[in-house]
Amino acid sequence: MSNKIHVLNEIVINRIAAGEVVERPVSVVKELIENAIDAMATAIQLDIEDGGRKLIRVKDNGIGMSHDDAFLALERHATSKLQSEKDLIEVQTMGFRGEALASISSVSRMRFMTKDESDEVGTRVVSEGGRITNAEPVAMNQGTIVEVRNIFYNAPVRRKYLKSAALESGFIHDLVLKIAIANPLIAFTFCDDGKIKVQTTPAPSLKERVSSLFPSEIVGNLVELDCSLDRVSLSGFIARPPYTRSSMRYIFTFVNGRPVKDRLINSSIIKAFANLVERGRYPIAIVCIRTPLDEVDVNVHPQKAEVRFLRPGVISGLITKAINEAIIGKDSNHPVHFNDWTTPTKFNVSLPDYASDGESQRKSFQVLQENNGQGFSFPQLGLTSQSNLGSRPKLTELSFLGRLPNSFVVLHDEQGLVILDHHAAHERLVFNRLCSSSESDPHIESQDLLDPMVVELTALESETLREHAEILSSAGFVLEEFGQNSFLVRSVPLWIEAKNLDNLLKDFVDTALQTGIKADPESLRRDLFRNLACRAAIKGSANISSTEISNLLLDLETTDGPSDVCPHGRPILVRISFDELRRRLGRK
Fold first, then answer.
1. Domain positions in the chain
2. Residue 224: which residues within 8 A CB-CB, separation 6 or more?
3. CATH 3.30.565.10 is right for the domain spanning 10-199
């Protein structure tokens, strides 16, 4: 009887490994550039043709390899980056498996040239399908050049599933951006079919590298991140809302200098922006995390794209803390503000509030005076900018022009017109106040209803409401069960209208159901606050006075929280410069 089990030959083994390591051209680029970084290169050049399907060439000025090492490098699991099992636990290099070159060569035609400082000439090794077909000396400077041609030429099924050249090039372009961000001290050049797409010189800091890679409109909206928590540090930049994108393409995340796609990091960033951007919109963020090597596992994915943290709670908390400090300025010894964010002087003078029905209520607000019926000017408050990445006009410099019928408020300054959405502005202020109140006092003040309201729910909705009754209670609602699937609402928060109560509570239940019967309490609380703020805010059609507008604007200047967007992420104001008006009117 013949044996059924046998050992595969090395070529087949490499081809199987290539299925995990080499998914598409961008996988090859990633492995080769990471090798160049590990070789201590200070300049890396990447050339591709036909989206990388025809040619991928990576040239670096790193330490290079000797003649003997050039041959060993093409062997599977041959590497200079690991000496012991301990090195695998605390990986300090970008590559470490010893699979990349062997796997790449098994599915392509490769030419490999390298030279270290000890050799007078370099070594050129040519392989096809994983078999070395030629080797010879070559005159070259110290460093390494790897040319990969006709990827998947011997795996036609895999090659057939590659996307268009433009799409494959796009994947590579995104990768080069990520690696260039993570390594500001290295010069990068990326050429696509002979056209330069990325070209950078060594930058002394992440800030300079970001400024050289991104358009000025993005750079001008960035604010710096700088935070640490329990031996873990975070740095980088975020764009202030409402400057967002329709996909997560502009969320760049790094762990110990390694670009990663980590669900924990991405979800923490998106959660931190939950009340700042519209649903379906994503922030622009560059988040660089530094953690002890023994607290992160980078060996969980063949392409090293995912990581696993020993203390995920610390990572999530750090991201939330860093973004809150940057946007709101809380819990920070060195407050970080938006490009145009300011720290104003606060006043404690009682003036009428602007209520949702247009009538005034007594609240604590700041003083502004109307200027002889010709529009009002704001007193200078001695505000100082905390950012050096950009600037914007202060609300205290705006003057009142008028209101559009049943719509927005029109303001102006020396630079142009400003259209204010007063509903969105008041909504943001109420939301910030709700959040602030809940932090200082777990239970928000409520008012009794003259006629308690009955809310009818389904069995599932009723169970969900019972599970999260404490959240409603802390927000100022007093409910009691009134039958099997009915609830009696006796009290509501001070600034909510009872006529919208039924829809508001059902929205709350729907949100809880979307995230499961035991949804995240903090997320639900913020969703509830968003809905409360929207219903309590002055309506867009309300006829408010110029004094009320002035109070509203100054409150935006001094609110303890974001002031650029409403809690749903919509912009509060839009600027139209006089230069733009002149251009449209043919004056420029």
1. 10-199, 214-327, 349-421+540-584, 428-536
2. 207, 235, 236, 237, 326, 336, 389
3. yes
